[in-house]
Amino acid sequence: MSDEDRFEWHEGIIVVPEQMAIAVYTNPNNEVVIRQSGRYGPDEDQWVVVAPEHALRLAEAIIREAGPIARPDIDWQAVNAAYDEFEAKTKAAPGKRRTDGRAAVEAALRSQPEKSNRAIAAECGVSDKTVAAVRAEFRTDSAETPHLFPQAAE
User: Fold this and answer.
1) Edge-to-edge strands of the sheet including 22-26?
2) Any residues with CB less than 8 A from the CB of 148 and at least 6 apart, and which?
3) What are the pLDDT digits (tens) for 32-88?
4) pTM over 0.90
5) Is the Cα dihedral 139, 142, 146, 148 positive or negative?
6) Beta partners for residue 49, in sequence order
């Protein structure tokens, strides 16, 4: 049985009634499906299937493009700035590998060795203890780095 055979326009999906009916739902493959009904029947329906890993990007793009037009009363610069901040924090959140954080700390230490451990930790999404450990490795692993990475006052 195809997805089309199982589909019904009901309240369990998001439907936009003001124009040709548009539904947004998740199919059995966990893909996000956007379906717009055809004028004369299901054979003319338009379908967009989005892989789960791209669905949030699509939703973000729709909100960023249509939000200011649909809701001009909202401060969209503030909304987008808050979302960008949230996204930056979640990219450094669980799921990233330990080596990713250490690599970010190393890059930060190379570019701004005078920064404090806490400042670098906040920037890289790691603990200040991780920064201290990486800074210590730089001091002991290389003959040229001890003078490059002095620890700033906390």
Assistant:
1) 14-16, 22-26, 32-36, 46-50
2) 110, 113, 138
3) 888 888 777 777 888 899 988 888 888 888 888 888 998 999 999 998 888 888 877
4) no
5) negative
6) 33
Rounded Cα–Cα distance for residues 105 and 100 (Å)? 9
Per-residue confidence at 147, pLDDT binned at 50, 70, 90?
Answer: very low
For residue 36, give the H/E element and its range: strand 32-36
Q: In terms of DSSP bridges, do strands 46-50 and 22-26 run parallel, antiparallel, or are they unpaired?
A: unpaired
Question: Which tokens hold the place of 75?
Answer: 């401060």
| Amino acid making up residue 137 | E
Helical residues (DSSP H) of the chain, grouped into ranges: 3-6, 52-70, 76-91, 98-111, 117-124, 128-141
Contact 37, 48 (CB under 8 A): no
Q: Whose structure tokens read 């717009």?
A: 36
Determine the distance from the C-alpha atom of residue 93 to the mean position of all C-alpha atoms in its chain, rounded to a whole number.
11
